[in-house]
Amino acid sequence: MFKFPRGFWSRRSFAACHIPLSLPCYLSLTITGKIEYIIYLLIYCYVIFLFSLQLPHGLPPTSLSLETEVEKQFLQDPSWLPIHNIDFAFQKVTQREVSVDSLLNCTPSALHTGLSVVRDPTTGMLLDFTEVLMEDTGLSAKNSLSLHRQPGPPSESLRGSNTNYPFLPGGMEELSLDQIKKKSELEKDVDFENDLLKVPPGLKAGMDFTDKEAKIAKPEVNLMSLLSALDDITELQPEADEKEEGKEKQDAPKLPRTNSLEDLGIKDAVSSSAPPEKGKDEKSKPKENPEESKKWAIPVNITAPCDDFYKRVPNPAFKWPFELDVFQKQAVLRLEAHDSVFVAAHTSAGKTVVAEYAIALSQKHMTRTIYTSPIKALSNQKFRDFKNTFGDVGLLTGDVQISPESSCLIMTTEILRSMLYNGSEVIRDLEWVIFDEVHYINDAERGVVWEEVLIMLPDHVSIILLSATVPNALEFSEWIGRIKKRHIYVISTMKRPVPLEHYLYTGNSTKTQKEMFLLVDAVGNFLTKGYYAAVDAKKERTSKHAQSFGTKSTSHNTSASQDRAVWLTLLHFLSQRQQTPVVAFTFSRTRCDENARSLESMDLTTSIEKAEIHSFFQKSLSRLRGGDRQLPQILVMRDLLKRGIAVHHSGILPILKEVTEMLFSRGLVKVLFATETFAMGVNMPARTVVFDSIRKHDGTGFRNLLPGEYIQMAGRAGRRGLDATGTVIILCKAGVHEMADLHVMMLGKPTLLQSQFRLTYTMILNLLRVEALRVTDMMRRSFSENHRDTQTHEKRISQLKQMVSSLPPLDTDGQLSDLLPYYHTVTELRTTKEALQRAILESVNGLKALSVGRVVVVNNKQHFNALGVILQVSNDSVNRTFTALIICEKGNEEGDGKCNNSDAFPHLFNTALFIPEGPCSHTVQKLKLEDVSAITVKTLKVIPDRIIDNYNKRQQPRFRLDPPGQAISTATQELLRLAEASPGGLPSLDPVNDLQLKSVDVVEDSMRLRVLQDSLRGFNCINSPTFFARVKERMSVQEELDRLLFLVSDQSLSLLPEYHQRIKVLQSLQYVDSSGAVQLKGRVACQISSHELLLTELLFENALSPLAPEESAALLSCLVFTQNTQGIDRVLSVAQRIGELQRDCGIPQTAEEFVGQFKFGLTEVVYCWARGMPFAEIAQLTDVQEGTVVRCIQRLDEVLKEVRQAARIVGDSVLGSKMEKASLAIRRDIVFTASLYTH
């Protein structure tokens, strides 16, 4: 630190300068390190005294305010900024020296070498440093999918950036040598002398580098000629050398010539690294099963007890105060081995134990775990539970971010998806991802997110899937195992810790309050006795009612007073039997509210409980503003809660839902009226579950509950450790439900896990911006394409290719020159004929024609153009067969004689009928439709039963030599006579003219058939006796090969046409260019998670900039609200345009449907809220329930943040700041009160 010489600031030194000490002093520092005292002497007309002192150590440190200096010098000095000569002033401000060299600076490239320490292996002493080459130094998040790339900036470490590459998804291989050699559609052969591009792809203008004046000399030597010369030299090597190196040459792949040195480099690397890998594989082969029989999903046996658990896990990462079940122990063992598991068990069976152990393991290993849940409320609850258990837990939802640096992060699946696409650094440290409530993958709207995340997870991340019981857990796990190339251990248990008893309840008054009938017992037996007892009880009351008041038509709906009577009766009965708490599932929000309000006479709590409820309620609401505490919904709920009754559905304010959940888990809420969402994941079991109805509205219409839905909700009954059994009651208010419906619902199989995979624009754009990832790869790996067993197909393809190469080449000279065209014609003829036969069989007239007595032409392995007569037609409509009497050679009755080459289909061109050379015999056979090659116009009178009986009798050994009966002889002679009368062929029934089949397909096929049959006569190859056998074998192999090649290609993907349509839309709107490169609009759309096209178009059309912040917030509310009302022109016109464009590009959604998804019902509400109106007044503006309004505004805040980010990418800072203001305006009071679970 600088010190002044002693006595420097003494009074004497000032006196020597004749400076009065009372005057104001200013210290000015010059560049040379001299101090100038500037003393303004007001009395002596501001005479300046200067004294300069050379400091021994240069300048002292200072802290001048740069801002005030700039203001004084530039803004307050009139000579510096002249009012009239602005140009001069501007020049003065911007005057700077031109330095061209500064433009040549570039950031230094990363070092390619580093220092490595050499130590003594025994003592560990440091001996030396050596320089080592470092790989992957140029990799970054902007150019590589590798985990070896450098970390990005800290600001992007959590959520990543939409310009980052994601990490390479597990199971997606790096490009193989064949794929590198294979050119894509957009690649062309580069000619380095002609046709060089002058404009780079993606740019509008370029440069012409050719020198117009200089003559271009023809190069005398080029690289390819040198290489060819090199080849010639190698060919001249002595033969002895060749023999020595023969083995090596067989092993080493031959390098093809290439125009690209880079390709050669890649090939060299691959070929050099190939031998060690091969060796490795050979070593590991004996240990593993052969790949053909490889199953990725491995079911774990949980019937046998796990006795050696504590030996195998002596120091568990986490200990529970109770003994684990077998399925939990097996799961823990798998986690210890770092395997992925799928745990399917009933609600409250203890699946959370598996998640807890994974979190504890990651803390032990100092890695990270991500726990994903389908809904935000469940994320909040899990955050509280895990925070209490582990401490180091963070939460990420759309609007809340708590401790993002924690080792365990809880988030919704959508946030994990965006982190994966944006290459978040969190993924590097990730050891486990836990997917809770995996059966949510069946959700039509959001199920695709689960599939995307599962596909995008990198290789080093292990997966834990927790689900309710599902029938196809093994199939689902097999899919995940196959796409991730790792084993998934499936642990499935049907055991319930607390068995359930299901009852029907028909009571509706004090007299009938005990009418509760057991329908399914704790073991799972369906008791029909209980069902009929319930029916009788209901019928008796109905008949009494009918005697008094006349009959009344029964319906599903009941009046409010009837409902009230039933609920009062039931709840009195249950509280007497101490069967509370009760969860009453009601599939209508208004019905929930009405039922709760109708119980105003009921009080289920003691005075102590009332006091506890009151203090908790007041404490929870203390963070709300005074006005918000007086909201009608809060006052109603407070009154209900004090009496032990509560309501839980999406229309309730989030803070009230949380208060209800917490009071319910403490046992203070005795009766909870809830919708289906309460059964989702959160562990809040009750003593009893009641179903108000078993019918629900699913968005399209009313239907019965599915078994999976019923099991999920009924599973809330029975508290582990408190109840011996859980009670499930179904109310029979209008009448007893059908027994079949109840049986299916209670004991049916739960819903299968089904793929809801669909293409979204965000997904397409996110994958297009990364060259190494293709959208078709994502589609191929989706659960919807699970049936594609590509590995098996590829093995078979390689076998077939070898078979094709081993077959002798086709002789296509002379007569056989038209062999292949003939084969294709015959194949087409065969398929056309089969299609026609199918059409005939499915038609009424065709079946009438194929009746008893009809003469048909039979062709199969035994018969060639033989006449037969139909004796019987089977009733089986799927595999219909025809019993027929057919003429044949003597001795060929059983088909043991000479067999015609039916594979050659000679009957397709040769219509000459079979006439026996020797004595005519007969046989009775069952024919399939394909055996009947023609239905003739002729019919015979036959006695079918006699013919069949006589034939069957003569099949027995002792009657075998008997002569045929009269009926058979007559029929055989008639058939022979017909064949001899028309040896060239009998006329057959025409499907169009005779059978009156007028459909377009049939008419086209019959015309095509005639053309093909006529064309067959012109082929030369039919004169060669064995011509067809040669081509048949080869072509059958080739056809199978072509079919499999199609199946493994992208062309067979079911979503491929839609992908091309969506790309067309993106190209039309200029989100991507013709070569598939993502443009600026596409990059903006990547920022936005839903309605990305509409928002991006509004942004680029500048529709939001002229609006005030509160107006833009109101306008964007249409994207997050779901109830109908009138529209707003600008958004609707853009939506209409996008909808019409999608329709034009072939996407099967009408413009009206696209526009119809944007609802403007809360526009006024959001506008008033953004302008600061209290929530109580806003609630009066709309009939939408308070909880829905809050959810809408919370989701709107997420949309505003996305638009703000997008505006910044475009460079529109004004719109960005407007969105920030709008976001701040709506983020207040009760709407954004922090969750009770996070405090």
Q: What does this molecule look like?
A:
The protein is an alpha/beta fold and 1239 residues long. Among the domains are: 297-493, Rossmann fold; 500-546 and 558-747, Rossmann fold, CATH 3.40.50; 818-893 and 910-1033, no CATH class; 1087-1226, Sec63 N-terminal domain-like fold. The chain contains 42 helices and 29 strands. The strands form six sheets. A nine-stranded mixed beta sheet has the order 7-15-8-14-13-9-12-10-11. α26 runs antiparallel to α32, α35 packs across α37 and α36 runs antiparallel to α39 (1163-1170). The longest helix is centred in the last third of the chain and has 25 residues, at 1186-1210. It is globular, with a radius of gyration of 42 Å. Mean pLDDT is 75; it is low at 1-53, 214-219, 232-293, 547-555, 896-904 and 1122-1127.
Topology:
Blueprint: H1 11-16, E1 25-29, E2 34-41, E3 47-49, E4 52-54, H2 66-75, H3 86-94, E5 113-119, E6 126-133, H4 177-181, H5 223-235, H6 239-251, H7 261-284, E7 297-299, H8 309-312, H9 326-336, E8 340-344, H10 352-365, E9 368-373, H11 376-390, E10 393-396, E11 401-402, E12 408-412, H12 413-421, E13 430-435, H13 447-456, E14 462-467, H14 473-484, E15 488-492, E16 500-505, E17 516-520, H15 528-549, H16 560-576, E18 582-585, H17 589-597, H18 607-621, H19 626-629, H20 632-642, E19 645-648, H21 654-665, E20 671-674, E21 688-691, E22 695-697, E23 702-704, H22 707-714, E24 726-731, H23 739-747, H24 761-768, H25 775-781, H26 790-806, H27 819-842, H28 844-849, E25 854-858, E26 866-873, E27 882-889, E28 920-927, E29 932-939, H29 944-953, H30 966-981, H31 1000-1016, H32 1027-1048, H33 1056-1068, H34 1080-1086, H35 1092-1100, H36 1109-1116, H37 1129-1144, H38 1151-1156, H39 1163-1170, H40 1175-1181, H41 1186-1210, H42 1213-1226
Parallel strand pairs: 7-15, 8-14, 8-15, 9-12, 9-13, 10-12, 13-14, 16-24, 18-20, 18-21, 19-20, 21-24
Antiparallel strand pairs: 1-2, 2-3, 2-4, 5-6, 10-11, 16-17, 22-23, 25-26, 25-29, 26-27, 27-28
Domain Helicase ATP-binding: 332-488
Main location: cytoplasm
Protein name: SKI2 subunit of superkiller complex
